[in-house]
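G.,

No rush on this.
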Amino acid sequence: MTPSMSETGKRLSINTVTRKLYYYSGERLVKEYPVAVGKPSTPTPPGQYKIKNKILNPGGVLGTRWMGLTIPGGNYGIHGNNNPSSIGRAVSLGCIRMHNHHVEELFPQIPIGTPVHIYGHTEPDAIPAASPGKGDTGAGRNGKTYTVRPGDTLWEIARSFNTTLEAIIAANDLPDPNRITPGQIIIIP
């Protein structure tokens, strides 16, 4: 039987803005790792997922370890890499890249089924309750998200996706729609 969070108490949390992966055991932060995340054209999808498979030495751009994620619509994972200078940047096709020595350290501690929370804001880490109507992926009903770039406004984002400012504010539960930050993931309804 694969251990679940209730059995192991382990979980991973990834902040795509600060580009950090946090490894928790229960409520205790065990370790923090720098990561690379998806570039603006192929962002890392925010949401609640689980580790679905693990591969030793996948090779090439995947480095020395692969931990696949249950993100629908693609083959996403947490993996090593063959380009250490990419760590700390938004450059991947949506996967989370780690230094090989870091993923080698983390890999044996993370069982299949471990929860993974991916988010794109600068607030302290928390695993929120699921929001009604948004699904498990955290994406809008059409599955689109947008990564805020420097100088963007919500009005311009709404206009470019042919939706309303009010719809974007509601879909993202934004407390202050005038305060969006570069790297923040916006759900497009």
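When you get to it, here's the other one too:
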Amino acid sequence: MKKMIAEGLGTFILVFFGAGSAVLMGAHIGMHGIAIAFGLSIVAAAYGLGAISGAHLNPAVSLGALVAGRMSAGAFVQYVIAQVAGAIIAAAVIWLIASGKADYAVTANGLGQNGYGAGYNGEYGLGAALVFEVVATFVFVTVILGATGPGSSAGFAGLAIGLTLAGIHLVGINVTGVSVNPARSIGPAVFAGGKALADLWVFIVAPLAGGALAGIVHAAGLTRADD
């Protein structure tokens, strides 16, 4: 239960910092600021809660850990439930805060949801969205497995992971808004509805595929330091 609470709270921090910065401060800080907010959220959660649960905060990360042999199937299911719940609660809090502004409407202003195609950020197509999410998640989970595995520098994993997520956002916000995390996408989509829900499958399937591939490659020893 303690691990589930840590995963739920950690994912809440991720979505509250990241999606919250886009909704409440996006016009002032731009994409660079949003990228930094996502990166800082990982640093905060990793150092604050990582000792309890490992601070996966992401079903794709947990799937990578499962495939790499670092967690059981039962623990994976529990982590995912907690992560999705934390993301939904965070999105609800962001929506409540944003609704305090007279000219805010979730249908018009959004809730930091992911997307692609006409009318979304750079209007990249489905193929570009899938490639970016698979590749970016593969890179992200590979860094996580390496930074927390044998031979890693103790105490620096949270910083390395947070900076990696910030870098991924600097590359891909204009493409999909950057998911690399099904829970992060599910939370805002639940409240945004419409296109966000229609596009959601991309941000579940592609990150999970990237995370699983990272786990497979790590388990094969290709991205794992010698034990």
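The chain has one domain: 2-101+113-219. The chain has nine helices and no strands.

Enjoy the weekend,
O.
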